[in-house]
Amino acid sequence: MFISLASSWYWFLLGAIVSYFIGCFNFAVLISRIKHKDIRQEGSGNPGTMNMSRTFGLKIGLINFFCDAFKGIIPVVCGYVIFKGMYFEGTDFAVSDFSRYLFGLFAVIGHIFPVTMKFKGGKGIATTLGVFTCGISCEVAWFIPIAIALLLGVVLYIYIFEWGSMASLIGVSSFTIWQGIIYFLRYEQELSSPWVIVAFMVLLAFNLLTWIAHRVNLYRLMGGEEHRTSIKKLAHKKRAKQ
Fold first, then answer.
1. What is the model's pLDDT at position 240?
2. Distance from first CA to last CA of the chain, Å, rounded?
3. Of 69, 77, 81, 209, which is the most exposed, with the fewest CB atoms less than 10 Å away?
4. Beta 87-88 vs 2-3: how paired, if at all?
5. Could you give phi then psi for residue 23, rounded to 5 degrees?
6. In sequence order, which residues have a C-beta less than 8 Å from that of residue 145 and are 6 or more positions away?
7. pLDDT over 70, % of the chain
8. pLDDT category, 52, cuts 50, 70, 90?
């Protein structure tokens, strides 16, 4: 089935708006309030997984990570299912290759710049990783182990080097490069198509958003002042509390 931009743009707009407001819901703030604290007043002040792990321990950090990742998964699944089997008029470009990442991108924007928190949210890593893990898994079943391997690579990097921010950025970049390779191989014959170009721009936007959100972390890394995230210490801290 072929569709034109004129007949579908409002669906993209509606999906982007809904995805943005899904992203605006911050689980770190909710969970920390349940724990009778405000994560924005603790540690680095960032309402995200790393700060939640340092403040409340590894278990709470993981719960927060999966909740934030789920915010990225929902828009991707909707974008994929709604437009599955559709192609833009006059091209071989699958609409779902655009819609699922467009909706995922706006969920990340909502997480980083939530209107509900005066545009001061988290850094978007968990939500972005949720977007790409689900987005790549939508391609074919055997891509799922690759997505899981990339996630495990992020965890391993943190375990060895203890630089959570750098591991997060490497993870996002790795996922976007992998999806970019998929696009290149799939649409090699029409790389000049506006839709293919826009798809690559959406992937680039994920990187720009997350790297810009981590600009302070990058300055601290270069100055040797970045906060370390030791999985071993977090696990030990958990056992000590028990």
1. 46
2. 58
3. 81
4. parallel
5. -65, -25
6. none
7. 96
8. very high
DSSP secondary structure letter of residue 226: P
Question: Rounded to the nearest 5 degrees, what angle is found at the Cα of 208, between the Cα atoms of 128 and 202?
Answer: 70
Residue 25 DSSP SS3: coil
**Rg of the chain over all Cα atoms, to the nearest angstrom:** 19
Among all chains, which residue has been given the structure tokens 């209107």?
115
Helix, strand or coil, per DSSP, at residue 211: helix
In which element (H, E) is residue 217 found?
A: helix 215-222
pLDDT tens for each residue of 21-43: 999 999 999 999 999 999 999 98
Residues 6+ apart with CB under 8 A from 222: none
* Largest distance between two CA atoms of the chain: 63
Residues 58 and 238: beta-carbon distance below 8 Å: yes
Give the least confident one: 119-133, 138-152, 163-177, 191-205. 138-152
User: What is the distance between the alpha carbons of residues 144 and 14, in angstroms, rounded to a whole number?
Assistant: 29
Instruction: Output the pTM of the full model.
Output: 0.92
With bands split at pLDDT 50, 70 and 90, how would you rate the model's confidence at 145? confident
What is the DSSP-derived secondary structure letter of residue 224? T
30-38: Cβ within 8 A, 24+ apart: 31/56, 31/60, 31/63, 31/64, 31/67, 32/56, 35/60
Q: What is the mean pLDDT of residues 231-238?
A: 67
What phi and psi, each to the nearest 5 degrees, are found at residue 3?
Answer: -130, 155
